[in-house]
């Protein structure tokens, strides 16, 4: 009589190489913590600044964008509290870029572990997303300090919007990381493809400019598609949570938000969940070839 896949055998052991995907990651949280610590330790080994690079990189990035667009192109005159607007978008894009980019390289970067022992391979891209979240926290602290100085007085809905924006982007990055990370084991060109995608996402998301700039430039149907992009929704939800709550009437150009923001955020979460399911299914289908391909 055949035994179901993943079921224990007569001795109480589970058939090796068979798992339940992301559910195994939840059950093996201790392994996830070990992988996150290992990635952080390896990344900053021999570094003088260590985790302080989480502050330096976004600070330089913010300075370049602020002076190039805010001062030289005078976006700070067109958008009230442009510094808060800009940085609240940057922290989202940085988190997405690091999560997605590192998750794509997670399996190939842990080739030695994949070939030597069995453990849920989803742990590697998920651990990369957790490392990105560790780097996200210092940037969020800076954002909070900046918004408080600007007069941030958030409502409950704005706080919930910020949480929703983070969940949307984290879910999307994990799903894409699973999808492209599994394919990257077979075709290493996908690392370069993902780098190009991240470049496009940075400049097509409403981080450096406002949503109505896009609305005026594209047809109506394309604008709706643009709004359903989970990264776009994540950025705008952060704008609603941290920038909109800090703007002051009469202090500059009126702050406006895209219509039906929370509704589009819910739809974006649904899209991100679909991407997560597709990424998990693709990962499960290809993971049996990881060891031999690596």
What features would you describe in this structure?
- With 294 residues, this protein is mainly α.
- The chain has one domain.
- 72% of the residues lie in helices and 0% in strands.
- It contains 15 helices and no strands.
- Helix 5 packs antiparallel against helix 8.
- The longest helix has 31 residues, at 156-186.
- The chain is globular.
- The two termini are 35 Å apart.
- It is found in: Cell inner membrane; Cell membrane.
- Belongs to the ABC-2 integral membrane protein family.
Write the layout of secondary structure elements.
Elements: H1 22-27, H2 29-43, H3 53-72, H4 75-78, H5 82-104, H6 106-109, H7 111-116, H8 123-149, H9 156-186, H10 189-204, H11 211-217, H12 220-228, H13 230-243, H14 261-286, H15 290-293
Helix pairs in contact: 2-8, 3-5, 5-8, 5-9, 5-10, 5-13, 9-10, 9-13, 9-14, 13-14
Membrane topology: Multi-pass membrane protein
Main location: membrane
Organism: Kineococcus aurantiacus
| Class of secondary structure makeup | mainly alpha
Shape: globular
Helical percentage: over 70%
Unreliable sequence segments: 1-5
Short description:
72% of the residues lie in helices and 0% in strands. With 294 residues, it is an all-alpha fold. The two termini are 35 Å apart.
Give keywords.
294 residues; mainly alpha; 15 helices; disordered N terminus
